[in-house]
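Handout, section 4.2: multi-component inputs.
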Amino acid sequence: MANDREIILKVRDLKVAFGSRRKRFEAVKGVSFDVYKGETFGIVGESGSGKTTIGRSIIRVYPATSGSIKFHDKEITGRISKELDREITNKIQMIFQDPMASLNERAKIDYIVSEGLQGRGFSKKEISEKVTQALNDVGLLPEFASRFPHEFSGGQRQRIGIARALVMNPEFIIADEPISALDVSIRAQVLNLMSQLQRERGLTYLFISHDLSVMRFICDRIAVIHKGRIVEMAETEKLFEHPLHPYTRALLSAIPQPNPDVEKNKVLEIYDPSCHHYDRDPAEWTEIEPGHHVLANQEELAAYRKLL
Amino acid sequence: MQKPILSVRDLHVKFKLRGRVLHALRGVNLDVFEGESLAIVGESGCGKSVLNKNFIGLLDQNGFIDQGSIRYFGMGDKMRNHPAAGHDQEGRPFIDMAQFKSNDDWLRIRGSEVCMIPQDPMTSLNPLKTIGWQISEALELHRGMQGKMAHDEVIRILQDVRIDDPERRYKQYPHELSGGMRQRIVIAIAIACQPKILICDEPTTALDVTIQAQVLTLLKELKEKYKLTIIFITHDLGVVANIAERVAVMYAGDIVELGMVNEIFYEPQHPYTWALLSSLPQLGHRGEDLYSIKGTPPNLFKEIKGDAFAARNPHALVIDHKEQPPYFEVSPTHKARTWLLDPRAPQVEPPAALRKIKDIGGVKHGE
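Output:
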């Protein structure tokens, strides 16, 4: 069904490890997924699950230990040419979690937004035009350019963070918990802005978060990651209606629902990794129904099929 | 009829900032009943933390109580000789915390009467001391326990907050524990003081959802076991639905709506509560815009005329811009500060999307 769509990012068996020899720690243990053009792909997991590491290795902050990441069918891991590097920095941009910490306190907004454009052969006039445009696009006034970050509220700062990404005219934006630090009402504004920009510019998002209720609203497809491995991946509604992997179900049962009657009677499912018997029957990444992948062994697959 | 343990009347708190005065709390009235769990919700800057810092004497240096009273009924006659002590109409002894002048007064309240669980467990524990030392410090100061007795009590409390292998954890340092465990330790320290009121300032915001759910369950257990009164500050309405019995909605330094949790979620009356609930992502449809509140909260440096929310309120009436609405009672437990409830006001229906709140999460997973 989804096969005819253009794949913008192809990640295959990605592994990222930190440290060496005895202290080696594998944060991402072989992750594969595709991101289609124009969609919002979500990665959800707890802290320490490796979701941020995946985002950062795509943008080449952390080198991949093994595996491949292809952007528009071009390999972007390992040593790459200078031109390609430049192209990727233009086309892949990032929005960070905490707008209080991710903006340089001592720089003015026009510098913060234009930093990525410097040294790329643009004239001063072009740069200032682009900055004005980017600020306009995120709903800020152009005169804000001469102010400092501390003069803005949290929501405005996150808009500045988005403007900084937009000014490069990217195709692909990695949003690492972009709204976790924001208030409920401002959250809605930033989410709306992100989807508006997606409609207008055909942006593709990789949305990293731990908040499943926001994910359900914004993502087309979601991958659930646990301890460096994707355990389940499906279209959003499918995942919410038929969660198969016990970890996904534990996550879903834990979301606090703003509905007192449901909350008072809710039963928590707690994930216990020892429920798997992978030593005698190793788990495989299987497509259990079209577009719905799950990490399971044969025994579990049989049980999951009954649930569908 | 429940008895209030804490009774706030017409509380005004101001801050001096660079020669200007910020009016952070504008006449708050609130009763906290014994043994209940009350959630205070609102955006950042609405004054929910400032309000609670008044109950524990931790207002910042530049802040002061301009007028109003905070009567605490939990001490009985213990402080009857204090100038701030008194009796209410029913003859219950209270102490007015708004009149406290010295830190010594607060030392009798803090810990043994009112305890606070801060937001971030990473910064609220001492990294240089063991878990056991930090909990026994509270026991020594507030309950005069020492040595073996204190040690045994620490182990018992650690078991109460569901920490496995307490003997081993006793000797460990905060950095050896995960975020959820650290928050349990912070809760343990609070419980060790045996307070009557536990103020939880966004205690689960920094935690993962799965851990958050466990900590909330733990708090509910402890509330029953230790007969605590819990004041829960949060902006996560899902958490509110889980833990609260009563909810106070704050906006711009005032409580705009107060009611039982079901009344607030299923029959909200104030346009701000409507807006807050409408912006929940659970009520949105993918591909459509989520409801968002237009504009920004009012500037509290300036005097606010009329209803503070009027400027952002699509249903604002002319009078909203002129005069502050009084509380209108919807039911004996539910009141809201909006002119829309005045009998002379036009009929305004709450947003249709709010009816869907009853359906959120209604689908059982995996059945």
